[in-house]
Specification:
The protein is of the alpha+beta class. It has an 8-stranded mixed beta sheet. Strands 2-3-4-6-5 form a 5-stranded mixed β-barrel. Helix 4 packs across helix 6 and helix 4 packs across helix 13. The radius of gyration is 26 Å and the shape is elongated. The two termini are 37 Å apart. It is found in: Cytoplasm. One of its GO terms (molecular function) is ATP binding. Keywords: Aminoacyl-tRNA synthetase, ATP-binding, Cytoplasm, Ligase, Nucleotide-binding, Protein biosynthesis. Homodimer.
Amino acid sequence: MLTTIKDVAAHVGQEVKLGGWLYNKRSSGKIQFLQLRDGTGFIQGVLVKSQVAPEVWEDASKLTQESSLYVTGTVRQDDRAPSGFELDVKHVEIIQVAEEYPITKKEHGVDFLMDHRHLWLRTPRQRAILTIRAEIIRAIQEFLDQKGFTLVDPPVLTPSSCEGTTNLFHTKYFDEDAFLTQSGQLYMEAAAMALRNVYSFGPTFRAEKSKTRRHLIEFWMIEPEMAFVEHEQSLEIQEQMLSYVVQQVLKNCERELKTLDRDISKLEKVQAPFPRITYDEAVELLHREGFTDFKWGEDFGAPHETKIAESFDKPVFITHYPTEIKAFYMKPDPNRPEVVLCADLIAPEGYGEIIGGSQRIDDPALMEERYAAHNLPLEAYQWYLDLRKYGSVPHSGFGLGLERTVAWICGLDHVRETIPFPRMLNRLYP
């Protein structure tokens, strides 16, 4: 019967057929050890010369790295094996003998591996990362679905910027100017007024000429928006969601985390509630830690976020940023209008901001003032102003950057490994 490596545990002592690829091979002369992969996992096939037909031995001898084949054999439990099982091979059916494979077990440079990203994905490490990425996505959607959120898809092509910035990819929309979205948030606010609690999940684009290990040009965002939800309740939903996601990864991706040598003790601490400090307190912390030149009103950079995170063993919310450095739609604190009701969630271990959110302005007069202060074109944003004219309510939302979250949970050095085909400042291939 045709099965997968993932499911061999259910077939111990039985003969099965696997379709896969040869990841590696070694031979002692009388035994061939076939390292097999099939997309669901890895297993070693043991082929004993004296126990198979001569043509089976010969066919196995022809196999090169990444050759495709069907293998038939008996599943045997083996606690020494990484997967816990081995396959006593009885028959080999070659589908294709692969050409000389460019990625070998020797050390390769990053540029070489990125040029061969379409093949690099086949390695155990990359498979583990993408499996964990898929689990993170599944867990986020499961959490939000269970909380009564509705998935809504905002447009990728937009007539204007979400935050009034210039870091946008410009294109022509027939005879009009258009841009690739940098956030679906404004459209999700409209959806929240129709469906109450909503979220989007899709690609976003930022034309920032940044080369840091935290930045991609194209990345994926989960953006919930919630009607009748104020700042404090939004923070509770964020920490509950992230706690749920991390615990689901620990539960369902134990083998993948082991492949990555991830220290799971740090992830086990990620349970709500999370610590919270204000922007003011964060500035004081930085001054105590030697960042004496940092001035109130500046935004935090990577070194600042890392230093702040070092004081905590969980993700930490930094709340109430200065109004002047945040987006036009964020609601000022009624008791202190020079700061807004917002928060950035900073991941531990130097991974920086993974969630940004705020309570949105619901007063139409104040929103018109912010339009004027930010010189926003009314013709592009009139529809957004309409949301405050026809049944405005308190509402909040946030955006989680998927790739930074994957990098943190997996313990990766660079976000380029968190997405199947990364788009970076100097990389559009493959």
